Amino acid sequence: MPGHGLHRRVLVLGPTGVGKGDAIGRLRARTLTALGHQLRYTDFENECLKPHMTVRSWTTFLAQDIAQQASTWRRGWEDFKKTLSDDIILLGLHATYVSGPLGLRCPIHIPSICVDFKPTLIISLIDDVYQMWRRTEARAEGQEIRGRPSFEQLLAARRAEQFLGDVILSHTGNPKARHILCATGNNIDALVNLVVFDAPVTYLSFPISAPRELQNSGDSRFTEIINKAHLISAQEMSATRTRSFISPLSIDELPIVFKAQELPQEAQEVEFDCNNGRWNLMDLWGDPDLIIAPRLGGLMKFPVAQVQGASGTIQTDVGWRDRRLVLQSESLSIICPKPPHEDRITRGVSEEIQTAVALGIVCNIWEKPEWDPDDFVGKTFPPAGSMGIGQTQAVVRKIDTLEGVIRAKP
Asked: Does residue 104 contact residue 150 with C-beta atoms inside 8 Å?
């Protein structure tokens, strides 16, 4: 279990378009106002790497031979080393670079990061791919020389960034170091509590398709329960700084895939409401300033061919990501795994519970009593029998209230 102590060397990764600078700005502001802690931040690319570039654009730099890129990166790193002190340091960098014409590049030197910086916490920031694409397109202003990566390229970079975070972790040689995957649609206090208190992560587990289907039929009760669970989580993180809740709804990409699939074959663009087309983040957290990175909201147009071309990767990433979020957690807070009028645990939640049980991760479950008069959930996860307590009974606990399942400690 993670110890509760201040991390002094925090490595923040994130592919282009994720809004890493804005996220770290909000993290620093929240830490200062809520706790009085001043966090020092170094933007490696802009402060250390850029002064050593002999070319006029990032795209031209990425077009160079990888050995030349790596040499430039090492010179930037030597400058960064000279600034190291005992301050609490957040180092933001890209483990990979991606551009439309050139694809994925990786000039970083992992041994230098591990030996010189010695990170004890690695955070990989991710975001909805359509948000990433919109940010990179806005920066490019239609100029191909400025990169313009596609949906597929951004997803490749997102995967590679997480993978390299794992590689860096494995080379730190520190068994207490952590690598946490965190989407910028989460609550900022999840990051504050990770950085300042090394808080254990609790994963919010709940059905997503069932509430949406009920909402579409005019029944918003399930959606309201999920929203309430997030608001209670936000209150808990603010009141108890050793809690860090991470939600699967902080990434919500399937709605734009489904909308693109419904369009006629001749359609060139898909219109998507980045606020209400996905699960609304304001409904989850209540305050836009508490979301890790600012959102690009409203109705926007995206190339339908790019969305459809990336749809397979997006759908695959859902399962991969949810499994990863379970594996990095100390506990699961499971909300209404049985939808109303159905005697089943939804497939996604069932798989998350199975993964957690196999690893001894505590699962706290709350089911709305009116939706489960015959105690289907209790019978699915019964107490110890005549042969004594087993693995499932040891880690799965049914909780009486929604507030209780959120506040239950790992």
From this structure: no
